[in-house]
Structure formats: structure tokens, C-alpha cells
Amino acid sequence: MMQKDLMTREEVLARLNIKSATLYSYVSRGLIKTAPHDDGRKSLYMRADVERVGSRKRGRPPRQVAAESTMRWGEPIISSSITQITTQGPMYRNRSAVGLATAGASFESVAQLLITGVWQDSISAWPVIETPADVLPLLDTYAGTLASNDMGNVLGIVALAMGMCGRGQAEISDGNSVQAARLVIQSMVGCIGFLGPTRRFVRRDPAESLAAYILRAASGTASADALRAMNGALTVLADNELAPATFAARIAASTNADLFNCVAAAIGSHVGFSTGTATQKIESLLLQNAGAHSLESRLNLVREYGASLFGFNHPLYPDGDTRADLILQLMRETPSATPETSETLDFLALAREKLGTHPGVAIALVTLARGLGLPDGSATAIWIISRTAGWVAHALEQRTQAFLLRPRAKFVATSWPY
User: I need a surface site. Which of 22, 134, 242, 372 has the fewest CB within 10 A?
Assistant: First the structure.
């Protein structure tokens, strides 16, 4: 590529009149592509992309160009009253997610707020809803055999199974969406038992909170500080605006799919290599045998494989992800945490200082799960269980908008070499 097609960082900042954090955001969102610099430590930036962004800043682009750009990590393209992303983290229907977690709100109350728009701070536990009898034999087939990296897949199966035997049609026709959401979330928690010592589906006890149910299913200790940390994590991860999986749920909802299929569509998107599987990479690579590796050796893993592989530096939170910071802070304040927890926290602090890497929710969740003595795979399950509340809220909102989400493709002819 000719030098005239590339720009230095300083040239881009001057051309667009922006700060470094904004440039990082543009690159992360795919709006400005990069090329390697000669010295290997810097990046050069595509002039055509920079000029395109500059043109967008000067005036409103044509409708087709604007629509095309929003599909590539762009601004939201759907109106929503559920969650707003701010520098202080997500706001759930004008209530701070971090604030709710800090105040000790139950996940049940937060899920109710997202799904119905009504805040009830007195909800400590949902009534027990029995997992359907036709689903239990299906779950029994995974007893003793489920691998930790299959947890996302089995939760997707649970969501689909819940929609069978007429339950999906009933959810739509009978208007029992809240009960359906509670059923699928509760049944997902029971599947964490596949990772625990019994290696079986665990049923919920009467009046048991979801946070306590998760800890018991995974054979963790439901101490007061462990419950506070678990509730806090479930709360701040319940929704994050139009994440890819949330968008998938809304697409399914726009076709009038039942709630169970909408959740299954979201899970299928969440467990992709670029999103939900970050927890598995952290468990199997970054924090494998954590006590046997020095802080510097783990820093070298981040340098070698790249911060994005492990979920550092979320593009929506260039100055640090307040959700992850809250989870890590709760673990610092958990006296019953495992001894390895302090070593992981020291490593993350050092990575932030030396590499400028802000931990994301994947590494925060693995730190939480291991700190509470939960088996690998639990972090993936906790993330999906929590986010299901947001997926349901978005699916129900999409139904009220009554239009099909169906973007058009712009055909581009390709010359194939012969």
C-alpha cells in the first residue's frame, strides 16, 4: 500500500479534531482500519476511512450510506426504552445498573424491572416453577457427561425445549411472558448442577433466590458476601443495549417467534468465538494454573495473544468497563474468596498499569466464579442466565414495534481470478 493511502495517529487526531480515546473507539467499531507501522509498535490508519468519518462528522450522509455504516459496530439503529449506555455503565429504564448492584438489589427485582418496566424492590425470590416433566428426561441425558465448554450449548437446548409441547404457542396466545421468562431462567440455573460434584440437574428449593440457587447448584457456599457478589454480577450483566445476541433476539421477535425461540437465538449468537467464549479462553489459557504462573508471565500472554482475545478494553467503555470493575470490587470485599483471587486481582491491576488494558466482564466473571469456588463453565452460565432477562425485555419491546427487522443487502460484483 502506498504511503499516501495511510495516515499517522497524529495526522488522524488533527484531521478529525478528536481525542485518542475516540480514535480507539472508531478503530474498535471497524470504522477506521489500520496497517502496521515500520517500527512495529505503532499503527497507521487508512486515509479513505478517515476521510469517510470526517465527511460523516461534517454533515448527514445519504440514507443508504448511513444505514450501511450502522450495521458495522455503529450507532443504535433501533429505538429502545430499556437500556442506555453511559460512562457510568448501563442505565436500566433510568436506573443505574451499578447503583442497583451496589445497593444490594436482588436480581429478581432487576429482571422484573427490565421485563415489565415496574420496579419492585421487595422481590427476593420468585415462586418455584417446576421444570416441565417432558424436559427433565432430555436434561438427564447430559448427566455426568457435560464438558464445561458445552454449557452455552446446553442452555440453548433448554430454551428450545421449553418452547415444545405447546408452551411456545401458549406464551404468545395466553400472554404469560413473565412466567415463561422465569421458567427458562430458573431451569437454566438448574443446569449448572452438570458442572458440580453431582453432575446432574439440580432442582430449586422453595423461597430460594436465584443467586443462592446458582451457588448451591455449583456446590459453592451461599455466604452473605458470596450472595452479594453473585447478585451484583447478575445485576450489572442483565442487559447491555444492542449487543449482537440481543439484536438476534429482537430479529427473532420481529418474526413473532415465541419467547423461548428468541432466547435460543440470542444464546446461539452469544456463544460465538468473539463474544461469550471469552470466558473459556480465560479459564483454559490466561488463568490456567494461575498460582503456578507469575504475574509477568500472564502479562506476556496478553501481549502475545492480544487483549481483545480475553475481552479486555470493551469498545463501548474506552476508559474502563464499570460493570467489570464493580464485579472485581465485590470480589475484593469477599472475605470467603479463594486465596488465588488476590493474585488475579493483582495481575489485573498490573495489566491496567503496564499495558493500559481495562478488564472486561468475561475476565471479571471468571474471577468471580473461581473466587467463589465454582467449577469452570460457571462463568458462561452466569452470563447467559443474567443476560436472558435483557433478551426477554428486548424481545417483548420488539413485539410492540410491530415491524420485521429485515435489512437489505448491497450487491457487490466480485471478479474471480482464473
Answer: 134
Per-domain boundaries in the chain: 3-70, 127-418
Residue 175 backbone phi and psi in degrees, to 5: 70, 30
| CB 282 within 8 Å of CB 297 | no
Kindly give, in sequence order, each residue whose CB lies less than 8 Å from that of residue 35, ignoring residues fewer than 6 positions away.
Answer: 1, 6, 43, 44, 45, 46
Distance CA 114, CA 102 (A): 18
- What's the helix, strand, coil split of the chain in %, to 5? 55, 5, 40
Secondary structure class of 42 (helix, strand, coil): coil
What H or E segment, with its residue span, contains residue 7?
strand 6-7
The residues, any chain, with a CB within 8 Å of residue 288's CB and separated by 6 or more, are none
Instruction: For residue 305, name the pLDDT band (cuts at 50, 70, 90).
Output: confident
Task: Answer yes or no: are the C-beta atoms of 380 and 311 closer than 8 Å.
Answer: no
Question: Residue 95: in which H helix or E strand, if any?
Answer: strand 95-96
Cell numbers for 157, please give them.
437446548
Q: Which residue type does 156 have?
A: G
Joined together, the cell numbers standing for residue 219 give: 456446590
Q: Which of 136, 71, 93, 100 is nearest to 408 (CA)?
A: 71
**Angle, helices 322-332/340-355, rounded to nearest 10 degrees:** 140
Instruction: Estimate to the nearest angstrom the gap between the alpha carbon of 273 and the chain centroid.
Output: 13
Write out pLDDT tens, residues 110-134.
Answer: 999 999 999 998 888 999 999 999 9
Rounded Cα distance, 238 and 389, in Å: 6
CB atoms < 10 A from the CB of 149, how many?
A: 16
How much is the pTM? 0.83
Residue 50 C-alpha cell reads as 478517515
Out of 1.20.1290.10, 1.10.1660.10, 3.40.50.300, 3.40.50.720, the CATH code matching 3-70 is 1.10.1660.10
Q: What is the mean pLDDT of the chain?
A: 90
pLDDT in tens, 193-232: 999 999 999 999 999 999 999 999 999 989 999 999 999 9
Question: Which element (helix H / strand E) includes 65?
Answer: helix 63-70
